[in-house]
Amino acid sequence: MRLFIAVEIPEDVKEELGKTMEALKRKVSSVKWVEKENFHITLRFIGEVQEDKLPVIEGVIDEVSSKFSPFDIELKGVGNFPYVIWIGIDKGKEILSDISYSIEGPLIKAGFPPADKLFSPHITLGRVKKRIENFQGVDFGPLSFRADSITLMQSQLFSSGPVYTPLKISPFKKI
Fold first, then answer.
1. Which amino acids are annotated catalytic?
2. What are the chain's domains?
3. Which of 14, 108, 130, 171 is deepest in the core (most CB within 10 A)?
4. Which residues of 15-148 form beta strands (DSSP E)?
């Protein structure tokens, strides 16, 4: 099974992200857009994992979530990496980085390979095959929401696009 750990996005925020994506569709071509129900903030992509490893990963996210309190995330700005169009994170990115880092060590200790990319918190709106340069004319935010948990997600790939299924939601417990 293909897995990743994420912060889920509330439905009302997904709606606003969807409106921005619609505006972008009129400005940028040849983009594989993310379905709005799939918007999330990836903390750690794990990849293919045998099902018997699930309890280890679940234990890691339970341990990590117990060390953090709910916090606010502020989304602001539209940008791009060479092959990704994204929404930026203004407030909360340091905490997201701390959570990602707190997940990384125990996963490596449990035998999982290290992350292949440096953590850069964002919400992916779309992907392109041909490199794009910076684009102008569409903005987003600020828009805030409260993050209160981390989620272990299964990603199933289909020709129609990926389907993400929450396998475990672990609330932040620190008071």
1. 40, 122
2. 2-171 (3.90.1140.10)
3. 14
4. 31-33, 40-48, 71-81, 84-91, 122-128, 143-147
